[in-house]
Amino acid sequence: MPGLPSWADEDTPVFVISIAAEFSGMHAQTLRSYDRIGLVRPGRASGGGRRYSVRDIALLREVQRLSQEEGVNLAGIKRIIELEREVDQLTDRLAEVTDELARTQARLQALTDQGGRRGDLLPVRRTQSVVVWQPGRRAAGPPADEPPVDDDGAQ
Hints:
The protein folds into two domains: 1-72, Multidrug-efflux Transporter Regulator, Chain: A, Domain 2; 74-118. 50% of the residues lie in helices and 3% in strands. It has four helices and two strands. The chain has helices at 17-24, 28-37, 54-68, 74-118; strands at 43-44, 50-51. A two-stranded antiparallel ribbon has the order 1-2. A hairpin with a 5-residue loop joins strand 1 and strand 2 (50-51). Helix 1 packs across helix 3 (54-68). Pfam families: MerR_1. Residues 80-114 form a coiled coil.
């Protein structure tokens, strides 16, 4: 995209609204409306002005395509965008968990290899327990209808 500084990536908010409107083929007022309803959330400059990234401009183009070519209304477009963001987040999380699983399997294999030679590993059965707390009597003393109990349990 022309005009992108060398230090900026696709998520860096660098374009003022007039440039973003030109690149996306929309009117600046349309971009303001989309910001108000949450379709596209541009960054903000220190003075409060909107700054759009390359990713924002690509999203604006997709909004326009969905609206004009597919006939999707703005509420539908907003939901599509939300779902795509959620899928991206879940995909990222899946990659993290997959990497963590691979590291754990590698550590387990290394421990198993060591245990096979030295015999110092034992299988451990892991269980989960649930503790349910139920409110009981106050610790201040027995109720009035019960006699006091000594420390040895005698009455």
